[in-house]
């Protein structure tokens, strides 16, 4: 008799509430032609609950051992990651006002920080003198503060930064769905942080 084929696609990371056990369905997706087997495997406990918010991990081998101990007659294939980083995190209540204040403060800090950086850059390269020379080159007149060049240049900086960090000006729906540079940097930061936490947990286990 052929064994029932079961696939489990292991995720890279899982978020679980501290008071709940880690089940197979929390760590990956189960595929089987028999719905009852699929459901039972999804609800197999692979790690005991953690009473506090913390980080932990489990390997794909440990998951397969737990599943095969309950269903030794299945043909199990594991796909995806070789280990799962588990984040024990309580579900946070939505606080719209607090979120608004946080975003507002971050925007203010970024605005003044970027303004000071741009001002210092222009002071270092003596942008005022460069504009005066450009104005003299194009018009043949000497002017200490050529607003006809300074104003468009200032507007261009704002539009350029806005265009660089967002896709709202694109007419293509595909381009609008692409992540901006800031989103990519945040994604890479999250990946590096999770790798560091995982390596740190492993080091603590060995020591």
UniProtKB/TrEMBL annotation:
Pfam families: SporV_AA (PF12164). Signal peptide: none annotated. Keywords: Membrane, Transmembrane, Transmembrane helix. Gene3D superfamilies: eubacterium ventriosum atcc domain. The keyword Transit peptide does not apply. The chain crosses the membrane at residues 100-123, 151-169. Residues 4-91 form the Stage V sporulation protein AA domain. This is Stage V sporulation protein AA. It comes from Tissierella praeacuta DSM 18095.
